């Protein structure tokens, strides 16, 4: 009889070429990789804890493997992924859409538009649609307010008091902070 605590060897074999799989490490964590690499590129992620929770099975099929899709709750919110995960890594990311009226001219390159984007960490920001040529980004939603210094069209609303609103110009060459009296806004 073998002890539960005695070491035992368990091998998995590559479904592509039949060679032994071995544990390897990358910046994304541990995975099983084929010993036949680079001739065989099979790999299987090793995840000890689930990084998502299945909310609902969907009737739509995965375009990559043909299995059903599932609505899942992950670290950065809801997403739709394949039910065959980790064998199939298809994910349909929800893209936040701006309404057509919300177009902001880029103050840096003067050619592109600032559009709402999401970082790999789930944070929202506005970046120029001419990226990588233009690297303009701001972390808050801009408003149309003319800067008295550089006459730029966009500013960030920084503070509201009883008597005035404070703005900061989004032009990276200006970034001036200025106040607009609330009474003068009512008359305009």
Automatic annotation (TrEMBL):
Cited InterPro entries: Topo_IA, Topo_IA_Znf
Domain of life: Bacteria
Occurrences of domain DNA topoisomerase type IA zn finger (ranges): 12-46, 60-94, 106-142
Signal sequence, renumbered to the chain: none
E.C. designation(s): 5.99.1.2
A Pfam family hit: Zn_ribbon_Top1
An annotated GO cellular component: chromosome
Keywords attached to this entry: Isomerase
One biological process term in Gene Ontology: DNA topological change
Sequence intervals crossing the membrane: none
PANTHER family: DNA TOPOISOMERASE, DNA TOPOISOMERASE, TYPE IA, CORE
Name of the protein this chain belongs to: DNA topoisomerase type IA Zn finger domain-containing protein
Gene name per UniProt: topA_2
């Amino acid at each position: 009889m073998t002890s539960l605590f005695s070491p035992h060897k368990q091998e998995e074999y590559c479904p592509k070429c039949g060679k032994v799989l071995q544990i390897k490490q990358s910046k994304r964590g541990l995975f099983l990789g084929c010993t036949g690499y680079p001739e065989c590129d099979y790999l299987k992620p090793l995840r000890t804890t689930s990084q998502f929770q299945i909310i609902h099975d969907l009737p739509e099929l995965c375009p990559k493997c043909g299995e059903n899709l599932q609505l899942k709750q992950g670290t950065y919110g809801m997403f739709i992924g394949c039910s065959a995960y980790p064998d199939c890594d298809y994910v349909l990311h929800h893209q936040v859409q701006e309404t057509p009226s919300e177009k902001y001219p880029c103050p840096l390159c003067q050619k592109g538009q600032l559009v709402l984007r999401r970082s790999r960490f789930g944070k929202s920001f506005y970046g120029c649609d001419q990226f990588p040529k233009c690297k303009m980004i701001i972390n808050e939603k801009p408003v149309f307010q003319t800067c008295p210094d550089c006459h730029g069209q966009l500013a960030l609303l920084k503070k509201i008091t009883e008597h005035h609103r404070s703005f900061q110009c989004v032009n990276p060459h200006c970034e001036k902070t200025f106040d607009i009296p609330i009474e003068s806004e009512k008359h305009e």
